[in-house]
Amino acid sequence: MSEAPTWSHDTSVWFRDPGRADRLSPTLEVVPTAENFDLVVIGGGPAGYATALYGASAGLNIAIIEKQKVGGTCLHVGCIPAKELLETAAVFRTVRDASEFGVNASPPTLDLQVTQQRKQRVIDQLFDGLVGLLKGRKVTVIDGFGTLHADHVVRVSGGLSGEVELTGAVVVLATGSVPRTITGFEVDGRFVVTSDEILSLTDLPATAAVIGGGAIGCEFASMLADLGTKVTILEALPKILPGCDADATKAVERAFKKKGIDVITGVPVHGHDPGENTTAVRYGDNGSLDVELVCVSVGRSPLTDALGDGTGVERTERGHYVVDEYCRTTAEGVYAIGDCIATPALAHVGFAEAIFIVQQILGESPTPIDYGKVPWAIYCNPEVAFAGYTEEAAIKAGFEVVTAKHRFMGNGRAMILGETEGLVKVIAEKRADGTGGRVLGIHLVGPWVTEQLGQGYLAVNWEATVDEIAAFIQPHPSLSELFGETVLSLTGRSLHG
Ligand code: FAD
Ligand code: NAI
Fold it and tell me: Which residues does the UniProt record annotate as the domain FAD/NAD(P)-binding (predicted)?
């Protein structure tokens, strides 16, 4: 009989264990209260805590209710731990490939316990910093499950603050989201996990199937593959990375193939048959794949169970709170922001919505957020970053477009780094002479593109034209030269193109 699988994971992930006493930082005071507040925020993730911090900085008296830990998905089981583990994968790659630079090191091995400890240190440090900020701005933090009732009454129960009732002149619902699951792949603590559990793995599987090739699927597939797991992505749609330009997706798929990741698209998954040490995932017509671990990453479901009776707040069929372009729900004086509404499920969108509603509450007239132009940054290897239209979406929207692409293969800095996979693609409105006018979209795949998106993002959002930005100088040698080169070539002339 073969040995038991070597992987395991810590099932006491905080999101599934609300009773954990460590959910409060030693520096956080739990304040039982019966006051009226200017603003009561239910949910202490990025959207909720940003509302509290920004509102408090403008002098509002604010209470925030959190049933687990302030910081939410992003800090505890999302952006931060995922990027920390991806950085471990990057260090592993660097050591593995060091001999190419004449630096001879022993082949790397991974001590995942140490990795997990480092990840937790980063989270704890950020958590303490956040708690300090909330305390410093005199935000009242109430520990427990909050429910909204008629007339802006909010009741809290089940937490360390005990039974509390409070009211807010304005109430903000920022209750976030949880992993979506699919029939036939229930999380079992053995073979099937979601992002919540995979972030706490204590041993690596030799083989894994990732169901869903979106942002989460691609980040985990990349991380596992770089650390030595044989990964297969099973995606229902014809391409991975929804929302990404087709050329960018192709570049990622090519790079994934080189790492040994199999990407199988256009296949439904039907279920899995557990064996002793592996489980057989059934997909497509007759496909079957034996793996030690299945990661389900098929999107997130909004968490909107914070409504009592008579609130007047409506939900969509998919469970999001209904809001208008000002993030106002169907109830007077009640806003909803972040992952619990149907806008891009990104921490920085939650931050932007928080600032946007506080400005409204303060009587200012901020411009509604243009969700089609928000920045996207996906931290797989190679990284992906984009803002604005894809080529396909721009054409569908009725634009006549001109595009330019340049590959990192020819960029000096990328060669120096040894990371030449990927490209820059710029989509612009076509002028009568065939050159590019207004920049409509920018799509990047390659080294550090998540940090390079800035100038493309500004160009898209400022509605800059190609000739306006082609005049800007890029430092040499730099990765950003490729953006300059791509934009320059849309003027009809180029240097290295
Ligand atoms: P959440 O972060 O989910 O916070 C909601 C909070 O409300 C939670 O703390 C919850 O406990 C609390 N709550 C819910 N209901 C109640 C209630 N009734 N009473 C009291 N408290 C309640 N986004 C990025 O921008 N960049 C990334 O790199 C990125 N990486 C990600 C990686 C992974 C693996 C995952 C899962 C997500 C990632 N995201 C990323 C998405 C990002 O985490 C979310 O968009 C973001 O956390 C949403 O913020 P939020 O405040 O709306 O909700
Ligand atoms: P996603 O919506 O990005 O991708 C889900 C993928 O699963 C899609 O490609 C979809 O077609 C596929 N899918 C759905 N059902 C399926 C099925 N039954 N079988 C096979 N494939 C199926 O969702 P994901 O990756 O779970 O991430 C959720 C959200 O979290 C993202 O949309 C993003 O907003 C946020 N996020 C952002 C990150 C970042 O900004 N770096 C990183 C991770 C998550």
Answer: 37-354
